[in-house]
Amino acid sequence: MRLTTRIQLSTMMFLQFFIWGTWYVTMGTYLFNIGFNGLDVGQAYSAIPIGAIISPFFIGMIADKYFPAEKVLGAMHLIGGAVIYWVSTIVSSEYFFWVLLLYSLCYMPTLALVNAICFNQMKDPGIEFPNVRVLGTIGWIAAGLMVGFLKVEETNLPLRIASLISVLMGLYAFTLPKTPPKSRDEKVTVSDILGLEALKLMKEKSFAIFIISSLLISIPLAFYYAFANPFLNEAGMENAAGKMTLGQWSEIGFMVLMPFFFARLGVKRMLLIGMLSWALRYVLFAMGNNESLVFMFYIGILLHGICYDFFFVTGQIYVDKKAPKAIQAAAQGFITLITYGIGMLIGSWVSGFVVDYYTIDEIRQWGPIWYFPAIMAVVVSLLFWLLFNEKEEKVAVSQHTQLSEAG
User: Fold this and answer.
1) Which residues neighbour 395 within 8 Å (Cβ) at sequence distance 6 or greater?
2) What span, in angstroms and rounded, lies between the C-alpha atoms of 385 and 376?
3) CA distances for 307 relative to 273, 277, 313, 337, angstroms
4) Does 78 have pLDDT greater than 70?
5) Looking at residue 400, what DSSP letter applies?
6) Closest listed residue to residue 23, CA positions, set 137, 157, 139, 133
7) For the chain, what is the mean pLDDT?
8) CATH, range 1-182
9) Which helix (H) or strand (E) holds 97?
10) What is the residue extent of each domain of the chain?
11) pLDDT tier at 131, thresholds 50, 70, 90
12) How far apart, in Å, do the first and last CA atoms of the chain sit?
């Protein structure tokens, strides 16, 4: 791959995840500030997993068959830029979810499109893609640092910045290398799109336990994405959005160390450590404060690398190992549907209910709120430890790092 192409693709990844990182982390803080309750916030965050569930249909049945990926990418970001600006003007919980859902239907398909554009230009994606994809994580970090520095977490400005960068990304996309449609003459079914071919793997007990555990553990995971920033702000942490980017730096660091840990721990221990790390993070949030115990908040944030890499990336590697070559892509689509789609969707609703349940006289009782997902994560981890029994095999990790998404 030429240097100019690599720069083009790296810039694309930076902008792609800068957009998401600008508004996603701090939206809960903003919504609480304009009077939304926990259920409203949870519902708003559920728009993203719904978009993740629906977007494969758009990509598989339309974009892949009829239009060049870079042009679809440009159009979706231009439309998305207008829609997310519209989102920034809405202060009614009744309409906020629906307009944000419309935006998620514009944005979520672009995650697959940027990957497709990259892979089309690469001779060896296993080696070349991670070096490009890491710019996405850096873009997410830059967005968080900017929002924190500007001290605008409680305002609609992050949404408007995302709108501006989305339009910029939309225009930039038309300059990207050409990526023609690849399946114009192929029949694409719903089963293909959702990865349902992978259901046949559920006949094996270990794989079925893994899938069920992945679905259940994704429910407590949603608490962090929706409510960590509002919690840290209410606890009095300055520049919470900026400090939360320590989690992404941790993610990069542990990604580099993945082969070392994988060779020594194996799949089961890696997944178990990832699940228990989510429980530990929530306990630290519940017990810490912004004074003498503030270090607990920082440890909870830094645990993101283990929480994300040890669970999501290890899970993707395990699926790749278990699936026959003919259905590997379907299997990856299936685990994404289970975790980022169904699991996070349920988690968004549950987290909103729990936050409201433990809100007394408009004061959120964060201790009980965080203990709820912590206990759930421990229960799921225990069931996984007892039921998942499979002879470990050493697996190469390097070619799988491209599966990571920003967390």
Assistant:
1) 262, 267, 317, 318, 321
2) 14
3) 8, 5, 10, 19
4) yes
5) G
6) 157
7) 86
8) 1.20.1250.20
9) helix 93-121
10) 1-182, 197-391
11) confident
12) 27
With a cut of 90, say whether residue 193 has pLDDT above it.
no
Number of residues in the chain = 407
Q: What is the distance between the alpha carbons of residues 104 and 98, in angstroms, rounded to a whole number?
A: 10
> H helices within 195-337, ranges in order?
205-234, 240-244, 246-287, 294-302, 304-308, 314-322, 328-336
Q: Judge residue 203's burial from the number of C-beta atoms within 10 Å of its C-beta, 0-12 exposed, 13-18 middle, 19 or more buried.
A: exposed
Q: How deeply is 155 buried, as exposed, middle or buried, from its count of CB atoms within 10 A (0-12, 13-18, 19+)? A: middle
The whole-number average pLDDT for the span 274-288 is 95
| Residue 238, burial from CB neighbour count under 10 angstroms (0-12, 13-18, 19+) | exposed
Q: How far is CA 268 from CA 149, 170, 208, 378, in A?
A: 40, 42, 14, 15
Rounded CA separation 194/189 (Å):
9
| Whether residue 339 has pLDDT greater than 90 | no
Q: DSSP for 299-316?
A: HHHHTHHHHHIIIIIHHH
393 pLDDT tier (thresholds 50, 70, 90)? very low
Read off the pLDDT of each residue in 131-158 and give the average, rounded to a whole number.
92
Q: What is the pTM assigned to this prediction?
A: 0.83
The CATH code for residues 197-391 is 1.20.1250.20
CATH fold match for the domains 1-182 and 197-391 = yes
CA dihedral 389, 393, 396, 397 (to 10 degrees): 20
